[in-house]
Amino acid sequence: MNENNLPPCPECSGAYTYEMGALLVCPECGHEWSPAAGASGMGESEGEAGVIRDAVGNVLADGDTVTVIKTLKVKGSPTGIKAGTKVRNIRLVDGVDGHDIDCKVEGFGSMQLKSSVVKKA
């Protein structure tokens, strides 16, 4: 049924992929990839899956400094972490529940943050 002979989705193997600009998109799982990455097989898309990006799409790395973009509630704290707080020397981890940044926040101590609530400083 894929009349343009586009490759199946590398994530879910869905056959209904379509082109959107320079990317291929799977409507079944929402995965987006470039045709060059899809042609080389699963190896390249797995390497890209390990890349952690901030809220605006910048690639994060160990040791980066990030800024919190929205106020976060913290159990046991009446104020939480305010938007604009800088966090230095982050470590990228495979955390629980999407928390992929391990860091020390001044005034709070060690904790894990989601990359979707920070931007690279």
From TrEMBL:
<dbReference type="InterPro" id="IPR013987">
    <property type="entry name" value="YjdM_N"/>
</dbReference>
<dbReference type="Pfam" id="PF08274">
    <property type="entry name" value="Zn_Ribbon_YjdM"/>
</dbReference>
<dbReference type="InterPro" id="IPR013988">
    <property type="entry name" value="YjdM_C"/>
</dbReference>
<dbReference type="InterPro" id="IPR004624">
    <property type="entry name" value="YjdM"/>
</dbReference>
<protein>
    <submittedName>
        <fullName>Zinc ribbon domain-containing protein YjdM</fullName>
    </submittedName>
</protein>
<comment type="similarity">
    <text>Belongs to the YjdM family.</text>
</comment>
<feature type="domain" description="Protein YjdM C-terminal">
    <location>
        <begin position="52"/>
        <end position="121"/>
    </location>
</feature>
<feature type="domain" description="Protein YjdM N-terminal">
    <location>
        <begin position="6"/>
        <end position="34"/>
    </location>
</feature>
<dbReference type="Pfam" id="PF03831">
    <property type="entry name" value="YjdM"/>
</dbReference>
